[in-house]
């Protein structure tokens, strides 16, 4: 009963979640939040964990795009010297993406949110130590205002607007952000003409497609996220 609604909210909620994450990163870059190095670096680790959770979750519907997306992405690990093939077979639970892989990805999708929760607490603890950044650049306590009610109501309004759009999308156009190919049950004998990820992973897909060498593409993809950790060192403004 209403399982379809729960599934639609969960599926589209991932897209809304990544919209918030990318806006949060953009705001951090614009206002110089990266100067709080510990908070910023924990945030980058959180980004990795969230991306991993979203990827393993995308495999769970076990449609064509889920199956072949898992096949392509996990095969990238085979480029790791010495350990690559062993690591891929360990993740698969066999010699190809199969039911054992699905079971393992379900376990990862269940366990990773607990790691995300732990990292989020650490993220907030560091934020509490340093204080949150602000667009005005005010650092003195006399110029500050209480969080409640000035910001709590503002955050609550933003949350309500976000939930409104999520419910509207989930009820009226639940497949707007999905791939029609994923409605076809997984078939290892039929490869889809175009294998592409969800929109929030398109930047990674573009990097991998633009570099012919498999290992080079993986290193570039990893660097595209890890470069966020180097931004504090690149900051030259006083």
Characterization of the model:
GO terms for molecular function: metal ion binding; oxidoreductase activity; quinol-cytochrome-c reductase activity. It is a multi-pass membrane protein. Keywords: Electron transport, Heme, Iron, Membrane, Metal-binding, Mitochondrion, Mitochondrion inner membrane, Respiratory chain, Transmembrane, Transmembrane helix, Transport, Ubiquinone. Residues 137-238 form the Cytochrome b/b6 C-terminal region profile domain. This protein is mostly helical and 238 residues long. The chain has one domain: Cytochrome Bc1 Complex, Chain C. Helix content is 66%, strand content 0%. It is built from eight helices and no strands. It has helices spanning 3-30, 37-59, 64-76, 84-92, 99-130, 152-172, 202-210, 214-234. It is globular and about 65 Å long. The N and C termini lie far apart (58 Å).
């Amino acid at each position: 009963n209403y399982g379809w609604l729960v599934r639609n909210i969960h599926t589209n909620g991932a897209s809304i979640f990544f919209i918030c994450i990318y806006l949060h990163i953009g705001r951090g870059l614009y206002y110089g939040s990266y100067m709080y190095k510990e908070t910023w670096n924990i945030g980058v680790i959180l980004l990795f964990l969230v991306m991993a959770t979203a990827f393993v979750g995308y495999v769970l519907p076990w449609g064509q795009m889920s199956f072949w997306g898992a096949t392509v992405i996990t095969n990238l690990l085979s480029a790791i010297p010495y350990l690559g093939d062993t690591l891929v077979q360990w993740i698969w639970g066999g010699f190809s993406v199969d039911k054992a892989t699905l079971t393992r990805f379900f376990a990862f999708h269940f366990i990773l949110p607990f790691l995300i929760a732990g990292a989020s607490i650490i993220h907030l603890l560091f934020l509490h130590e340093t204080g949150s950044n602000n667009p005005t650049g005010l650092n003195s306590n006399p110029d500050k205002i209480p969080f409640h009610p000035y910001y709590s109501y503002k955050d609550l309004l933003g949350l309500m607007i976000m939930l409104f759009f999520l419910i509207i999308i989930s009820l009226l156009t639940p497949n707007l952000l999905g791939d029609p190919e994923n409605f076809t049950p997984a078939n290892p004998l039929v490869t889809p003409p175009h294998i592409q990820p969800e929109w929030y992973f398109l930047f990674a897909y573009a990097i991998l497609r633009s570099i012919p060498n498999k290992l080079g593409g993986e290193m570039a993809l990893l660097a595209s996220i890890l470069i966020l950790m180097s931004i504090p060192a690149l900051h030259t403004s006083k």
